UniProtKB/TrEMBL annotation:
It comes from Tropicibacter naphthalenivorans. Residues 8-118 form the Glycosyltransferase 2-like domain. The keyword Ribonucleoprotein does not apply. Keywords: Transferase. InterPro entries: Glyco_trans_2-like, Nucleotide-diphossugar_trans. It comes from the Bacteria. GO terms for molecular function: glycosyltransferase activity. This is Sugar transferase, PEP-CTERM/EpsH1 system associated.
Amino acid sequence: MKTGTDLSVILTAHDETLVSGPTLAAADAAIALAEADGITVERIITLDNATPQTRAYFTQDRLSHWTKIDAQEGDLGRVRNHIVPQTRGRYIAFLDADDLFSENWLRDGVRRLRALDKQGYRAIAHPELNWLFDGAQAVFLKPDQDDPLFLPQHFYFMNYYDSLCMAPREAHLEHPYVHRDIPAGLSFQDWQFSIETMAAGWRHVNAPDTIIFKRRRDESLVSQSRARRALVRFQDAMRIDRVTDLAQVAPPRPGLIARLFPPAEAEPEQPPAPAPVPHYGPVFEARIERAQAKRGKVPDDSLYDTVKAEFDHAFYLSQNPDIRALEEVDPVAHYLRAGWREGRDPAPWFGTRAYLTRYPEVAESGENPFVHYLTTGREAGNLAAPFTGLRDLADAYGLPPLEAEAAWRDRYEELRRRLERGALGQEVRKVARFEPLVEQGWAEALAVKVPPFHNDQISSRTGAMLRLQKAAAHTPARFVICVNRARFGGARRVEGHLAHALAAEHGPDAVLVITTDQPGALPASKLPQGVRHVDFADLAPLLRGDPRQRVLAEFLRSLAPEAVFNINSRLMWDMLTPYGTALSASMRLYACLLCNEQTDMGHATGYPLRRFYRHFDQLSGVMTDSDFLTAELCARHMLPETDAAHVVTVPNPVDPGIPVAPRPTSNARPQIFWAGRLDAQKRVDLALGIARALPEADFRIWGETVMGGAPLPPLPDNVTLEGRYDRFADLPLQECDTWLYTSGWDGVPMMLLEVAMTGVPLVGSDVGGTGEVLRDGLARKLPPEATPEAWAEALRAVLAAPDEARKQALTLRETLMSERDARAYRAALHRLLESKP
């Protein structure tokens, strides 16, 4: 590296032309201020795959003081990796060709890094604020990583920092940018750089009162990545058991004080005196004053002064342009009459909707939430902040919620003071000389965001993540099973068998089960002792759509699993569409497919039909519970032999611990049992029709409706609804003469496997995979088109020869125990796990 230069400023251009005029003017102003401070600066423009128009623009004579370097990388990260070794500066500051520096950024960024360098810290500096303008507006803080409000879990959903940082040259050489791969769902190189360097001991700080102005155009790398819902590449530092330690500041390194470029000591600058006119300008100031002078009519005038004393007129007008346009409207009166019902906030520190969500009794009372807070709630210790995830964030800080709220509010108000009348706002005015569009961001500046209290959507995601990680005991899981709900009944079912097999081989602490779609406790008998259960549906109840999918994706990645299994989890299926390819880069994904379903019009649907072809390439394998479905999937989709090897039947084992039921001895009438979901699939209507065709027998039905649908028709006199049952063992099987199993479509139902272990004769539907249990000569099976009368005749034949029927049922028991034991299940599971690396 050549010596003698403090700072290299690198502007990267691809197809920009006229938009770069303000960028270059602001950059030259910032460089001039830095040079006046004794900082030597190298100016570089990198033309990366530049268009002819871009090349012509940047090679004009007035830019001759900038060195031009060509590159053919076509990627933001790779071009930076390409250019850094060619620079001379001790520090590197990047600039995109359509963004702007605040005038003080380069000077104060170098000052901050030099000061930390003298203390022995390896540091990377950031502007204190990011100010988005033009196509979108937002203003948010870039805090020091040792800031009391810094929370590393925020990194799961937002990058605290930005690619336009200032870093020692060695930081970029040690941690080059990775290429983005948006089609594969992986992007955000700057985000990865932030996490990677922080994990390596680099200290991230901001330079107070500095700003990067980020222009949002129609197409940017960030907008492309967000539109395609890309993720940052997962890094080990974000594991559930390591993320809390990510922001711990590495101790200073001795022996780093002597440098090639000893800085001249700079006198600390005094903050400017408060501006007599707010930096957002006299026009808006006058509008605020006119609004403050009004007093409109309200239902209860006695509350008006109480509300007005804490009402933020500047905030209300800036956030509500429709009210701002109505000169005759008093904002306070508007809020009291209608604004609160419309979900508007009277001040940045009070969230109308959040308060009503947090305190539903206020919503039920119909009282204005701000009035309630000012007159009752504040004294009672109620929270006011507009973030529903506040309590979880406070718990992560180890603070009472009110203290966390106060810390956030103090930080917000201090930033706002410096924006309205201090040095931060002064920098906005300076840059507006070059690009007036930045001033359109003032409305967002008055609601400046303080991460992780970014906004309610982001804070609620972070809060949900904190709850989920706490429920998982902040411990990784080698194997994760996602299941839709905690299904009733004590049978292990697919998720239980899978958990038992994995726990037996790898230990229970290696396995975690997540219920995703419906809340509820899993029956204790379903999982081995020590296997963790996280009720995602209960812990993230307010998230919907993409935020819900994103939280599941990041939670799974934080667990650092070797493999994730999806067993009927609708949320996981939905999440795979945007995030499955990215997840498959760091874990193996498996789907369990059981059987198709039918719509209420009688047409086929279900996960095997709708999801198999969509996600097969993201999956490492597919497990079914029946040879029938395995063959059907391979045939329907004409799978090549190599792909068909990844579709594996994993037959659920039977439970030999289920005792043989004693034969009934005192039944006055034959007792026929039926149990299951009272849903369309299970053909309860057919069971009732069979009961009508067999009036000499009693039919006893256990179960409940799970999936909705038409109500049950009137019951025949010989049918009794016994209600829900919790465990198969709770059924009075000693009273059962024959078991009836009806179904319109199926896999290999656990109910059949359980009944087959009791020695009770079976009569069931021959659909899907049921024939793999209802063996010829050992049970009776009827085709889908069989009439109730045909079923009745089959049942009569069984009842007429009870000894033979029992003998066949016991032989079926022995056959299934020999074929479907735990060893056979584990062997099939191994074939699945080994089918694709």
